[in-house]
Design goal:
InterPro entries: SAM-dependent_MTases_sf (IPR029063)
Oligomer: single chain
CATH architecture of the domain at 46-177 and 203-234: 3-Layer(aba) Sandwich
Strand content: 25-35%
GO biological process, one term: methylation
GO molecular function: methyltransferase activity
Structural class: alpha/beta
Low-confidence stretches: none
Protein name: SAM-dependent methyltransferase
Order of helices and strands: HEEHEHEHEEHEEEEHEE
CATH superfamily of the domain at 46-177 and 203-234: Vaccinia Virus protein VP39
Helix content: 10-25%
Distance between the termini: 38 Å
Largest sheet: 7 strands, mixed
Shape: globular
Strand order of the largest sheet: 5-4-3-6-7-12-11
Mean pLDDT: 93
Keywords: Methyltransferase, Transferase
């Protein structure tokens, strides 16, 4: 991976001629993303993210932290013990420059030996598991990082709305999709192209079924304005 997402974040943080990221998926056309959005403060975050930050407690793990905006709020405003992790070394460097106390280049699937009271997967962070057939391994790993009484807070979207609707109200979904929420992402930045990677948007019912099958409980905390939601996962 060329870490173009992280390069854009670090360019913005260091004022190194930052430009928009160009994103495209297997089911959507090219779109421009202003990197400044990743540096937003609490007041400019979506309500789902604000709610998750309000619910965060104890020792926190911010997975896929990006520019570290969520971690900074929890660290500076709520005075919580936060560890920010991302596979992007450039993003982690930007987090450190912004003042995140504990920012580590780390794949959450390889973490061990430490437990947390709150684990955050915001901005559709759970999509990093890539494919639905990997969700059990993903959930078991996250479960192993939870303290007794701990919680996982994640948001995602049901992207069924992106598929054509027929006269009967059904949706036409390509047969080569194992699950309609699975997409392939392409990112380009300053003329460079990242290797395509798998991502997943998971609807709440599918998430709930997978969570329960893996010995966790699932609660729908809040629904957003456009097929998005915030969920809480926890052990009994």
């Amino acid at each position: 991976m060329k870490d173009l997402f992280g390069k854009a974040i670090l360019d913005y943080q260091t004022n190194n001629n930052p430009q928009d990221l160009i994103t495209e998926t297997s089911i959507s056309e090219e779109d421009e993303m202003n990197v400044a959005y990743l540096f937003r403060d609490y007041n400019n975050m979506p309500k789902l993210e604000q709610k998750a930050l309000q619910m965060a407690k104890g020792k926190v793990l911010d997975v896929g932290c990006g520019a570290g905006s969520h971690s900074l709020y929890l660290q500076n405003e709520k005075k919580l013990d936060v560890t920010a992790v991302d596979i992007s070394a450039n993003a982690i460097e930007a987090c450190k420059l912004r003042g995140v106390n504990k920012a580590i280049t780390q794949d959450v699937m390889k973490m061990e030996g430490e437990k947390f009271d709150t684990i955050l997967f915001l901005m559709n962070g759970a999509g990093m598991c890539g494919r639905l057939n990997k969700i059990s391994d993903f959930l078991q790993q996250i479960k192993s990082l939870l303290n007794d009484g701990g919680q996982v807070l994640l948001d995602s979207s049901d992207i069924i709305y992106m598929f054509d609707e027929d006269e009967d109200g059904g949706r036409w979904i390509p047969t080569d999709n194992d699950y309609y929420g699975e997409v392939v992402f392409n990112i380009s930045y300053k003329g460079e192209h990242e290797e395509p990677f798998n991502w997943m948007y998971i609807d709440y019912n599918t998430l709930q079924n997978a969570v329960i099958a893996n010995g966790l409980q699932c609660e729908l905390v809040m629904e957003g304005p456009h097929y998005d939601y915030l969920a809480k996962l926890y052990c009994l």
